[in-house]
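Students often ask why we bother encoding 3D structure as a string. The short answer is that it lets us treat folding as translation between two languages. Here is a chain of 172 residues written in the first language.
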Amino acid sequence: ATAGSYALKVKEYEEGKEEVAGIQNINIDVQSKESAEVIHIDKTTLVPGAESSLQFIVNNVGSAPLRDLTFSWVNADKILLPVGSDNTKYIKYIDIGEGAELDYRVIADSNAEAGLYELDLQLTYSDPISGGEKEINTIAGIYVGGGTDFDVAFSESSSGQTSFTIANIGSN
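And here it is in the second language, the structure alphabet:
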């Protein structure tokens, strides 16, 4: 049932009699349950110094539509930062059983040590029953690191000896 106030007509009977002894109207208030979750992050590994897309999906898992949502994330280590926008996105409406995709462009610090970094996720939305806001705080992990890669180049050759230059061109 959707949220609202409903009238319920109750008929009273006396035991053993078929006629109605009385009728009462009772109002019943039905409250809906709003609930959202950040269910998916499309990337779990980012290469330092390389711009990447990062997508979060917010799903409505409650029994009422969600309105006026605000989603943001923070990496306290400042290893991962958004590029071209801030870290906050706004969603006007998510219907029951639906979701919203939030796209970011991000860069992991080129000097970051390879490892797992924590993202603090925050989602707030309007609660139509209380008139206030509900807030969900959770965490997610993003691995920053990449593959190892080397470049070998010929330097010089003389008297039967050859020199090469080896450069680390990977992100580790």
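Translate back mentally: The radius of gyration is 29 Å. Keep this in mind for the problem set.
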